[in-house]
Design a protein that fits this description.
Blueprint (H helix, E strand, L loop, with lengths): L8 E4 L5 H10 L7 E4 L3 E3 L5 E3 L1 H10 L7 H8 L3 H19 L4 H5 L17 H18 L4 H11 L1 H10 L3 H9 L11 H8 L14 H24 L33 E11 L7 E6 L4 E6 L7 H4 L3 E5 L9
Length: about 325
């Protein structure tokens, strides 16, 4: 019997993540002949249905919707269970935002874990680590291609020291070592910061070095950010999720006391999770514990209701990046 995958994979030729995605597919034992160049990331699952998007492609692999892949490898790099897969999917969405320039290094700095911890808190690196590494490597290369390279280096090292440390750590993990072996131009992150390295060789310490101890104010800011993220995660766990991954399940009530039906996800589809930015936010006219947000997803704008009033003020959320489940059935805002 043939071990050829029945799915056809299309890798977006112009995407900064193309090489990393192709590497992941090959690692999952997808034959090179089944991977084509196209305008967008797409996978044709067993029944012939085409599904578009990086996250959707990974979900198709992990769910068994594509035959002929190495299930053991898929489990180890995409997630061993639904919780791990959900964390990986969130980081994949973040990697996409970094690669497109939608998320800055300063914003990523508040999210990335300590320098010696993998994104999904796994023993071995996952596709999330591979894609974020590739996304950051691309974005750093673009930034350092500017006319004032030294200033660009200083800005990255000052605004995202944890990110730079994490990249150096991640580069030493087996899965990313394989990526760098296939694509040497993605490797040696430390060598990118030539001005910083030159200063250290002279016996000095580069201003804005990634290894400078943060100030007391910066430590306090990071502590507050982590507490907010923890509170948000607990709210999501208690409420079971909502249209926005950063919000809890809305419980808006109709006039007369009838509760609005919860939003639903079509069980026949995969989750379409994207990063969006809250551009407008206001109070829900009929529910005192809910916000109504306008979220810019880059290609479209969505209106989303979330129960975050117990955790944040409106001005704290405006301008923030959130994860949004984009294929939930819409519900009227009442």
């Amino acid at each position: 019997a043939s071990t050829q995958s029945t799915g056809k994979f299309q890798a977006a030729a112009s995407s900064p993540l193309r090489q990393a995605i192709q590497y992941v597919l090959l690692t999952c034992k997808i034959p090179p002949t089944d991977i084509e160049q196209a305008a967008a990331f797409t996978v044709n699952i067993n029944n012939g249905t085409p599904l578009e998007g990086i996250t959707t492609t990974l979900k198709a692999l992990s769910s068994g919707a594509v035959s002929g892949v190495d299930a053991g490898v898929v489990s180890s790099i995409i997630g061993k269970d639904s919780n791990e897969q959900a964390i990986v999917a969130q980081w994949v969405s973040i990697a996409r935002s970094v690669s497109s320039g939608f998320m800055t290094f300063a914003e990523l700095e508040t999210l990335v874990p300590s320098s010696k911890e993998l994104l999904a808190a796994t023993t071995d690196s996952t596709v999330a680590d591979v894609l974020l590494f590739a996304a950051c490597r691309h974005s750093i290369g673009v930034a350092l291609a500017s006319e004032d390279r030294a200033a660009a280096e200083k800005e990255i090292l000052a605004s995202a020291p944890t990110v730079v440390k994490w990249l150096s750590f991640a580069e030493q993990t087996p899965l990313i070592q394989g990526l760098v072996k296939d694509h040497p131009e993605l490797g040696d992150v430390a060598a990118l910061f030539t001005s910083n390295n030159a200063a250290e060789k002279k016996g000095g310490k580069a201003e804005g070095s990634a290894f400078v101890k943060p100030s007391a104010e910066e430590i306090e800011r990071r502590r507050i950010e982590k507490e907010k993220a923890k509170a948000e995660k607990e709210a999501l766990k208690a409420a079971g999720g909502d249209a926005a991954a950063a919000s809890s399940k809305p419980k808006a009530e109709k006039k007369g006391g009838n509760k609005a039906a919860p939003a639903e996800i079509d069980p026949n589809t995969f989750l379409d999770i994207r990063v969006g930015r809250i551009v407008e936010i206001g109070d829900h006219p009929e529910a005192e514990k809910l916000f109504v947000e306008t979220v810019d997803l880059g290609t479209e704008t969505r209106t989303i209701v979330s129960g975050l009033k117990d955790y944040y003020k409106a001005e704290e959320l405006k301008g923030k990046l959130v994860l949004v489940v984009c294929n939930m059935k819409p519900k009227p805002l009442k």
